[in-house]
Design goal:
By secondary structure, this protein is α/β, with parallel strands linked by helices. The chain has a domain of 136 residues: Ribonuclease H-like superfamily/Ribonuclease H (Nucleotidyltransferase, domain 5). It contains 6 helices and 5 strands; from the N terminus they run ββαβααββααα. The chain has a 5-stranded mixed sheet, sandwiched between helices. Helix 1 crosses helix 4 and helix 2 crosses helix 3. The chain is globular and about 55 Å long. One of its GO terms (cellular component) is cytoplasm. It is found in: Cytoplasm. It holds the Pfam family RNase_HII. It is an enzyme of class 3 (hydrolase).
Length: 195
């Protein structure tokens, strides 16, 4: 059973990102403040849910959240500032969109940089413990998937519609065969050394 809040502070936002380990496309983060009495029996860490369940939850979260924000940080920026900094930047940009601003931030994972002077706590596997982080993980994942589906049309040979830019065997084979696109992260090891 996921918990509603970590602090007893009224405006607590959860934040999480998707796409950190991908070879192509943005890293996408979301931040969500849920009402105190929010309940949902299927909401969980996005990785535990099927695509169908995530797509069902997305409009529910958007309708019932007090406020939410979603932000992409694209491959050029990832190559420029590195993936950890890009992930944190995407979280900051999504928190920036919240209206009202949170009084406390809970972050999935173990790394974060202070945002304004709002107190925060990092929580390992937080997306499996707190509803707001789980909700953020769903929005980050669904918005990123929509973006990857869109750029799939431009470069269908990488099958991003299926792999979403993750380093699958098929994706690496396509890189070996067709080279890289403007959407690939050039700072990542795109092919195993042997290739």
């Amino acid at each position: 059973m996921l918990l509603n809040t970590h602090s007893n502070i009224l405006l607590e936002c959860g934040t999480d990102e998707a796409g950190r380990g991908c070879l192509a496309g943005p890293v996408t983060a979301a931040a969500v403040i849920l009402p105190k009495n929010f309940k949902n029996i299927i909401l969980n860490d996005s990785k535990q849910l099927s695509e169908k369940k995530r797509d069902i939850l997305k409009p529910i979260i958007e309708a019932q959240a007090l406020t939410f924000g979603v932000s992409h940080v694209f491959q050029e920026e990832i190559d420029h500032i590195n993936i950890l900094n890009a992930s944190i930047l995407a979280m900051h940009k999504s928190i920036q969109q919240l209206e009202p601003q949170p009084e406390f931030i809970i972050v999935d994972g173990n790394r974060f940089k202070p945002f304004k002077d709002i107190p925060f706590e990092t929580i390992i596997k937080g997306d499996g413990k707190y509803l707001s982080i789980a909700a953020a993980s769903i929005l980050a994942k669904t918005y990123r998937d929509l973006y990857m589906n869109k750029i799939h049309e431009e470069f269908p040979m990488y099958n991003w519609k299926q792999n979403k830019g993750y380093p699958t065997k098929e994706h690496r084979r396509a890189i070996a065969e067709f080279g890289i696109t403007k959407y690939h992260r050039k700072s990542f090891r795109l092919l195993p050394e042997a290739v």
